[in-house]
Fold these 2 entries.
Entry 1:
Amino acid sequence: MPFQFDHLRTLTTLVDEGTFEAAARRLHVTASAVSQRIRTMEQTAGKVLVQRTNPVAPTAAGDVVLRYARQVVLLDGDVLAELQAWEGGADRVPVPLAVNADSLSTWFLEALAELPADLGAVFDVHREDEEHTTSLLRSGAVMAAVTSTPEAVQGCAVEGLGTMRYQAVCAPGFAAGHLGDPVDVERLVDAPVVNFDRKDELQDQFLRNLTGHEPSAPCHFIPASTDFAKTILLGLGWGVVPEQQCLAQIEAGRLVALAPDHPVDVRLYWQRWNLRSPLLDRVSEGVRASAAAHLHPL
């Protein structure tokens, strides 16, 4: 399908930036030029590609073209890199990735930080629950994702990264006030709990597996990984926290492990476009190395 390269790059930029005006600023053209390029693409495709909402959103047809556009832009960046045409002032290749919040706050950023400065890429990280990151792969919104889904999304390759281990914890004062001494985990059913958001089921799953009961307690929602752990440390409720964020606090006596012999393990996988790309290969190598250093083996 004869899409022009500038038009494909305009589509990816528009979706990333969210508005015609923001895309125009990034592309150093006018908003009307961005609009005209998108209309030309829609005429070529014979379908509406972008919903004119705020922010804009690709249609189902737009998702198909967006995925193609990102691949073309990525391959163009790879060619420039191989020709050593990328320089410090040149445009970098955008690399959109999807990562769950706990990985983002514990080990994933080290993977990006260890990549060479002259890679010629900028990262657009989408924070999403590990059970839902694959939807961003399917839509073409991202090129790769940390996910809990071992089945490869169509057009993607998948590999195991490791197991992220969590412990159910609470503050000592919370334990004394709600769970008794010694701690009675059966009382967790009625004790205030902290969830990340309404997609977070780790606490409920832990409770069902440990006690066989359905949770019925009041629930706080704290949608930031570091603040989630801090909320538990401050005694507002109990929750399931990554070991990287709680083991030192447990050892120091600032947190109580509620069931140390019953950790919650979440298997993580790396899914990426099944596309030969030196840039995406380097990113994958960095993710693989950081996961090996911080996660338990699968």
Note: The chain is about 45% helix and 20% strand.
Entry 2:
Amino acid sequence: MEEKIETWLEIGTIVAPQGLKGELKVVPSTDFPERFEQPGKRWLQSPKALSPEPVDLISGRYIPGKNLYIIRLKGIENIDQAELLRGHKLFVPSSDRPQLAEDEYHVSELIDLEVYHQFTGELIGIVTDIFGAGNDLLEVQLNHTEPSVVTDTEEQPSDKLKPKKVLIPFVYEIVPVVDVDKKRIEINPPKGLLELAE
């Protein structure tokens, strides 16, 4: 019996081959290096599949400054095989979730949480992604959309309403409240931060 996707914890996405011998570049969605550096069983899911398949991680190393891991998977021995895995996601079972400190969160717990202004109570948007940097950044899709400029030569009505996104530093001073159970984040944005939306 196949396990549902909810029972898996996403740890990264394969973005490209590395070299000619089957190594793979992975953008991590986890803060735990052992997910890529310790050999053992992982699970691999193609963009078209409904559930991941087991795969053996042979080795992995971190590339400083690029937020990338280079990994080797069993059975992937050349660039052609590696190219076929572009866009595949890597998982571990949710039961393999490491213990976190009180103020730490798994990336998967933060995606789709609603973001509110701490003092006005206004719904600002929802978390759509998280980027690792010096401090992690929450990508928030703003609650309102604004019409973009459309000229007579453009025939793309779907672009008229374009959701805007903003990056919010995931630090206590700006994000003092994270309530995973209530699927709610409260922020205290510095003046001008929300006007930086793209």
Note: The chain has a mean pLDDT of 82.
